[in-house]
Amino acid sequence: MSIFRTPEIIKAAKLPPEGVRLSRMIDAVYFIPIAYLGVFATFHMHFDLLAGDWDFWIDWKDRQFWMTVTPIVEVCYPGAVMYYFWTFYRQPFGATLCITGLLVGKWITIVFAWYWWANFPMNFMMPATMVASALILDCTLLLTRTWIITAIIGVWAFAMMFGPTNYALFGYSHQPLAVDGQLLSLADYMGFTYVRTGTPEYIRIIEVGSLRTFGGHTVWISAFFSAFISMLMFTIWWQIGHFVGQSYFWVRGKRGVRTRMNDTMVVGSDEFARRHGTPNGIAPGIAAVGTVGSVGTTFAEGKS
Fold it and tell me: Do residues 172 and 186 touch, judged by C-beta distance below 8 A?
């Protein structure tokens, strides 16, 4: 028996061999080129518009705004995609799909646009990684099977893991340097060396901000604030995914009353057939194909 239990799934679906081949072809055409490439293209644009500079230039990766903004922006798109894959396919990899797609899009931009064309060094524009955070978020949904617990525990861990997972990548840039009698970090020195049209001058004085009054733990205060806002953003975008990605069916019951069914996971099941009067084990719409008004007829007239 395979790890994915494919024979059992095919047997339960009662698909003929032609249907199995068509299902596999749809997976290859839809999920790989359309879903993945579409995700990294649109998510990349979404991220660059909201948190682009903070996660792009190394001298923008400060201990306050970078730690706060990046997880909040990166949890939005996974929330909607996780709803879609979990509700309709019971696949808990929506967050990992989004984050890896975002990294693919960002590295394509870095290599082709900024390294080969503009001659900036790659480590000056290297993006942060949230793959570990995305795996935690998906595993939380898989184990709890509820988006509410995922929004509370999984998203909190998603934001809190951002700093520790990226410290190994960008910790070197915080080393102090003495340049012409001026104390700088390595990231600041690189920023002064590679001049751009705009530089984050506010970051030079960020350490005198109000967060220093909380005992000097700027990173963890920012991470906690980011975690709470990320919970809110995940909930909002999960509901956006529910609004945009829902499917519904109009069903005529035993008494001839048409009702709207939003729970697409139960349509076609034995429970649905027994509830609406179709023969046991036969999906509604198959028992009376083309017979509008028959008992158990499903009207697929809604959104899909």
Answer: yes
Q: How far apart are CA 302 and CA 150, in angstroms?
A: 29
Q: Are 124 and 153 in contact (CB under 8 A)?
A: no
Cβ proximity of 40 and 199 under 8 Å: no
Beta-sheet pairing, 249-252 with 258-261: antiparallel
Every domain of the chain and the residues it spans:
6-245, 248-304
Which residue, among 260, 279, 287, has the nearest Cα to 297 in the 3D structure?
287
Q: What is d(CA 117, CA 105) in angstroms, rounded to the nearest whole number?
A: 17
- How remote is the C-alpha of 16 from its chain's centroid? 34
pLDDT single digits (tens) 76-101: 999 998 998 888 778 888 899 889 88
With CA atoms as reference, report the closest residue to 262 among 290, 234, 243, 240.
243
Q: What is the pTM of this model?
A: 0.71
CATH topology of domain 6-245: particulate methane monooxygenase, chain B (1.20.1450)
